[in-house]
C-alpha cells in the first residue's frame, strides 16, 4: 500500500503552527517587575517577546517613561500595549501644555484605567490582551507607589512590589518571603533591591519558558526617583548579576 509523503508541516507533526495557517497570533511581552527601595522605585524586565511557542525577539523594550515621574511596564499583547502607552504619554503631555501644570497621580491612574477599559472590547474578542504595572512618584505627597491593573482597568496599589506576565506566577510568593527575611523593600538601598529583583527575574526565567534569561541580553532596568526617570546602566546591571551569581 502506497503512503503519500506528508505535504504540510501539520501532516508531518500532527498539529498546526498558527503562523503557517494564517490564524491571528500576537507577539507577547512576558515578565515584568516593579520594586520599591528607600529612595524610589525600580522597574525590571527581561527582553523576550513570544508568539505562541515561538521566540520572536530577544531585545524587546517593555518599560516606558510616560513622563518624568511615571514608569509603565507591559506584559501581554506587545503591539496594543505600545499603542496605548503612546496614547497615555501624549495625554499626559497634552494636559501639561494646556493646563500649565502636571497631571496629578490620581489623574494618571484614571487615564491608565480608562485606556484599559476602552480596550476591553478587543480583550473579549481574544486580541489585544495586555496587563501593565506602573511605578510613580507623587511630588505633592512626596511618596512612591507601584500599581497593578486588570484587563478591565481596575487598579490595585501594591505595598512595595508588583509583577505581571507569565513568569510572575512562578515568583509571586517570593516577594513577601524576601521582605520577611531581609526587611521591607522600601527600607533597603537601590543596589540591594536591584540585585534581589534580578535574582527573582532569573528564577522566573528558569521556571517559565516564555521568560528570557540573562545570558544573551541583559534585562532592562529603569528607576524613578525624586530626580526623575533614569535608565540603569549595563555596568550596574552586570555588577548586580555578579552579586547574585550562583
Q: How would you describe this structure to a colleague?
A:
- By secondary structure, this protein is of the alpha+beta class.
- The chain has a single domain (16-243), classed as Aminohydrolase, N-terminal nucleophile (Ntn) domain (Glutamine Phosphoribosylpyrophosphate, subunit 1, domain 1, 4-Layer Sandwich), CATH 3.60.20.10.
- The protein has 8 helices and 13 strands.
- The protein has helices spanning 9-13, 18-21, 78-99, 105-118, 120-124, 168-182, 190-207, 234-243; strands at 28-29, 32-37, 40-45, 49-51, 54-57, 63-67, 70-77, 130-138, 143-149, 155-158, 161-164, 220-225, 228-231.
- Helix 3 (78-99) packs across helix 4 and helix 6 (168-182) packs antiparallel against helix 7 (190-207).
- Mean pLDDT is 89; it is low at 17-23.
Secondary structure: elements and pairs:
Layout: H1 9-13, H2 18-21, E1 28-29, E2 32-37, E3 40-45, E4 49-51, E5 54-57, E6 63-67, E7 70-77, H3 78-99, H4 105-118, H5 120-124, E8 130-138, E9 143-149, E10 155-158, E11 161-164, H6 168-182, H7 190-207, E12 220-225, E13 228-231, H8 234-243
Antiparallel strand pairs: 1-4, 1-7, 2-3, 2-11, 3-12, 4-5, 6-7, 7-8, 8-9, 9-10, 12-13
Helix pairs in contact: 3-4, 6-7, 7-8
Amino acid at each position: 500500500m502506497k503512503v503519500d509523503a506528508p505535504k504540510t508541516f501539520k501532516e508531518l507533526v500532527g498539529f498546526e503552527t498558527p503562523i503557517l495557517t494564517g490564524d491571528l497570533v500576537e507577539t507577547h511581552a512576558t515578565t515584568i517587575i516593579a520594586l520599591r527601595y528607600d529612595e524610589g522605585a525600580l522597574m525590571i524586565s527581561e527582553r523576550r517577546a513570544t508568539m505562541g511557542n515561538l521566540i520572536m525577539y530577544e531585545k524587546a523594550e517593555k518599560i516606558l517613561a510616560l513622563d518624568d515621574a511615571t514608569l509603565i511596564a507591559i506584559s501581554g499583547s506587545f503591539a496594543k500595549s505600545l499603542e496605548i502607552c503612546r496614547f497615555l504619554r501624549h495625554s499626559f503631555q497634552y494636559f501639561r501644555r494646556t493646563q500649565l501644570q502636571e497631571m496629578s497621580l490620581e489623574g494618571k491612574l484614571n487615564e491608565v484605567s480608562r485606556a484599559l477599559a476602552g480596550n476591553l472590547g478587543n480583550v473579549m474578542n481574544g486580541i489585544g490582551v495586555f496587563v501593565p504595572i506602573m511605578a510613580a512618584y507623587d511630588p505633592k505627597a512626596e511618596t512612591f507607589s507601584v500599581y497593578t491593573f486588570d484587563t478591565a482597568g481596575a487598579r490595585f496599589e501594591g505595598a512595595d512590589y508588583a509583577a505581571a506576565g507569565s513568569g510572575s506566577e512562578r515568583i509571586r510568593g517570593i516577594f513577601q518571603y524576601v521582605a520577611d527575611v531581609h526587611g521591607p523593600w522600601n527600607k533597603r538601598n537601590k543596589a540591594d533591591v536591584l540585585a534581589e529583583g534580578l535574582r527573582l527575574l532569573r528564577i522566573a526565567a528558569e521556571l517559565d519558558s516564555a521568560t528570557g534569561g540573562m545570558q544573551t541580553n541583559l534585562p532592562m532596568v529603569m528607576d524613578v526617583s525624586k530626580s526623575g526617570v533614569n535608565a540603569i546602566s549595563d555596568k550596574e546591571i552586570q555588577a548586580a548579576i555578579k552579586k547574585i551569581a550562583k
